[in-house]
Amino acid sequence: MSAEPRPSAGVAAGEHRSCMRVLVEVADRIEALLRGVAAEHAGAIMLDVGCWDGGYSSRWGAALGAKRILGVEVYERPAAAAEAKGLEVARVDLEAGRLPWPDGSVDVLVCNQVLEHLKNVWLPMTEMHRVLRPGGHAILSVPNLASLHNRVLLGLGRQPTSIRVFGPHVRGYAFGEFCDFVERGDAYRVERALTAGFYPLSPPWSRPLSAVWRAAGHTTIVLARKTTAPPPWLDYMTDEVEGGMQTFYT
User: Fold this and answer.
1) pTM of the predicted model over 0.85
2) CA nearest 37: which of 15, 65, 11?
3) CA-to-CA distance for 21 and 203, rounded, in angstroms?
4) End-to-end alpha-carbon separation of the chain, Å?
5) For a FRET experiment, which of 2, 46, 70, 159 has its CA 20 to 30 Å from that of 153?
């Protein structure tokens, strides 16, 4: 059987541009959500989990009116760039390490386009919940496995773009499943669930479509408030490991 032809450089470049447009739209939605809760969190401490070079973190912190911006980044070069922008950055492997801040020390946290890269999502979900104060807000976003373009690709027998065989993503989350995952055990109460992007359309077309048909948008974004319920995610991992599924998480 002959090998499947590779996409041309032009196709790859076009796909990259479309993806970047979506990421910008996601960042804009996150900024709008932060502006919406800013009055409640005057002088907040904000944490950006997966802050990269701190560019978006600084912008989001300004939208929130944060007095301190914390960041988590495992790669040294972008972490140093984020520190140069004024962030306090911890180098942490989210799948293996604990966050260095005390319980309840963060008012608002953002975790944008991170959880799809992690096999062990249970520890970082627990750690983020731990450092967030009760009543604080978390904004979490992941690519939507059930986006319309992914559904079309699956219908054609092709791999969804959000979890490619040779891509960096190791987990896929459909819109409703991700909302359920965040609210598991009532540790968070989802206040808003929306999507950004309607791949491969540009923002003038994608914004109304993603607003009307949330479950088919490109990226799921959840605004959730921490409750006083204990975090359930590590208990779930322990139950599954004891049930003989440890190779799924390690």
Assistant:
1) yes
2) 65
3) 7
4) 35
5) 2
What residue segments make up the domains of the chain, in order of their start?
A: 9-248
Q: In what order do the strands lie in the sheet with 219-226?
A: 88-90, 68-72, 45-49, 106-112, 132-143, 219-226, 188-196
Token representation of residue 21: 């447009």
Long-range CB pairs of 117-121, under 8 A, 24+ apart, other chains included: 117/168, 117/169, 117/170, 117/171, 118/94, 118/170, 118/171, 119/95, 119/170, 119/171, 119/249, 120/94, 120/95, 120/96, 120/237, 120/249, 120/250, 121/171, 121/233
At 141-152, the pLDDT tens digits run 999 999 999 999
Q: Percent of the chain beyond pLDDT 90?
A: 78
Question: Thinking of the domain 9-248, which architecture would CATH place it in?
Answer: 3-Layer(aba) Sandwich (3.40)
Cα Dmax for the chain? 63
Beta-carbon count within 10 A of 42 CB: 11
Residue type, 8: S
* Residue whose tokens read 């974004």: 221
According to the model, what pLDDT value does residue 241 have? 53
